[in-house]
């Protein structure tokens, strides 16, 4: 255990003291802080402003009503400009286009109809495709048209309010062993799934490559000849894996602390409510499952990277060797992304027992589906077995490969060396 601790400490401090680690950690902390405060920054600088929308002359009652609707608002997001009649529709639109391209307005609205009929459609033209102003105008016009139709049929205010009352369907995820999960709990689970994906793949792309590079760099300096005689291959390999894990774990703790401090500020709490997210809706069991499957996922990939790094002689060859593992991790990522909306699918159930897929997909099933306890236990057991067996094979590859210098050994040579050791 003392030798394992020595390898872990050496690996950890050799990376944690580097300038790249410190600068990178500070940089991402600043990015997290800026990202969380981005809505507040946008609001402070008032990038959006008030959108000026011109309305072409029409005999319909809606243009005047729309103008009055936004004029009565204290901080209206839209300013309605009623254009004077130029004698023809073509002349009116030509004037609107001239104002649009000169920057006087942000768009113009064409509302057909006459005094007897209430228009049910309109055209909004602007230079911005998919403008959000269109949705705001549509909502306002729908409200005004409904009010006009209600007045036409002499409906009272109570009758109009009842007519516009929204029908709400609350979604409850029914589970066999409890009362089910609310929308907030499901939302928090989805957030946790994406957090796990981000953490796991950050560890894979950063920590995995670091493990492989650590091994290959020592090989290239021939210091491995001394290390391999003083420390067992299994101890040395897992010492490096755990050391790199602790580096990533410390970074995650720092990022989490920065995010929590920023999110707990009073003006940032409303952001969670706007997205229907409530941290109190997250159960302790989900947090424990999150930690368990993250650890399983990290070590399952880490032993593969360690084995891959031990069969190359130069650090320049590391990227080529670890490419298949990267592709496999990307496959896991995309399967998880497309399975969020269909966690109960048969392929998700099958892949949730397959090592390397289990950490994300079984966690996804626990949060959004209803797997039996024996399924969770079996998946964890299979993955622990995979880590042990793969770690044992990786240690043999490690010991066989670390003493091979020169060009990268062929698989046949590695297999012979593994059988010898």
UniProtKB/TrEMBL annotation:
The chain crosses the membrane at residues 21-42, 186-212, 241-267, 287-309, 321-340, 346-364, 376-395. The keyword Disulfide bond does not apply. It is found in: Cell membrane. Keywords: Cell membrane, Membrane, Transmembrane, Transmembrane helix. GO terms for cellular component: plasma membrane. Its main location: membrane. Pfam families: ABC2_membrane_3. This is ABC-2 type transporter transmembrane domain-containing protein. It comes from Insulibacter thermoxylanivorax.
